[in-house]
Amino acid sequence: MKILVPVKRVIDYNVKPRVKADGSGVDLANVKMSMNPFDEISVEEAIRLKEAGKAEEIVAVSVGPAKAQETLRTALAMGADRAILVQTDDEVEPLAVAKILKAIVEAEDPGLVILGKQAIDDDSNQTGQMLAALLGWGQGTFANTVEVGDGTIDVKREIDGGLQTVQLKLPAIVTTDLRLNEPRYASLPNIMKAKSKPLDQKTPADYGVDTAPRLTTSKVTEPPKREAGEILEDVDTLVAKLKEMGVA
Ligand code: AMP
């Protein structure tokens, strides 16, 4: 089985985002960018399935600027076999990404697509679900554990009340949650080896997909500043304070 793993280049999760002065978006100039953390979990899970003999090939794909090559090289250094960059400088919305992925699925014929549950830049949580709908495939979202059987995959999902297990017929779509695994670091020899692994370059037009935006961002604002806390000497003072504030 072949596994397709879409990986997005996003602002690094350790960076405190700065909003542009005109409120039109987040300022990405000179900001560290990395692979979306949920996508690292997807790459790790694909590698584990390959190591367990459940998959033969892992193809990483990214839709984004030329620099998204670095993100793909990270996936290759972790253990993906080859990569596809669908290059565009436009900001591509989830529906357009899902349409591009559908075209790649039709060309590559994978048995499984593992996406992150959400990209930490737009927090859309849409691409996996849209891809499943476009393909007419089953989806196991927010995966906590996956087990590949004979033509099926069991996905234990993280839901509000606990865990839910669904069984999907392959081919299928899985989106990863935080507790699925702990992604490995790429070793230096593997980073060197990744430089010679194949990386195809395409454009959205190669897949007949128009990436023109359908959404407009009205305004982006910083979250309100947290007010300073206060250390109280004992519980009685705390209770008195809470009463004063009208919450006790
Ligand atoms: P989102 O729906 O934007 O929250 O993204 C969910 C998942 O879809 C991500 O974790 C990625 O696996 C995939 N994805 C979204 N945008 C892209 C992109 N530009 N390139 C590759 N994968 C993407």
TrEMBL record:
SUPFAM superfamilies: Adenine nucleotide alpha hydrolases-like (SSF52402). Keywords: Electron transport, Transport. Pfam families: ETF. The keyword Secreted does not apply. PROSITE patterns: ETF_BETA. Residues 23-211 form the Electron transfer flavoprotein alpha/beta-subunit N-terminal domain. InterPro entries: ET-Flavoprotein_bsu_CS (IPR000049), ETF_a/b_N (IPR014730), ETF_b (IPR012255), ETF_beta_N (IPR033948), Rossmann-like_a/b/a_fold (IPR014729). GO terms for biological process: carboxylic acid catabolic process. One of its GO terms (molecular function) is electron transfer activity. Transmembrane segments: none annotated. Its cofactor is AMP. Heterodimer of an alpha and a beta subunit. PANTHER family: ELECTRON TRANSFER FLAVOPROTEIN BETA-SUBUNIT, ELECTRON TRANSFER FLAVOPROTEIN SUBUNIT BETA. Belongs to the ETF beta-subunit/FixA family. The electron transfer flavoprotein serves as a specific electron acceptor for other dehydrogenases. It transfers the electrons to the main respiratory chain via ETF-ubiquinone oxidoreductase (ETF dehydrogenase). This is Electron transfer flavoprotein subunit beta. It comes from Parasphingopyxis lamellibrachiae.
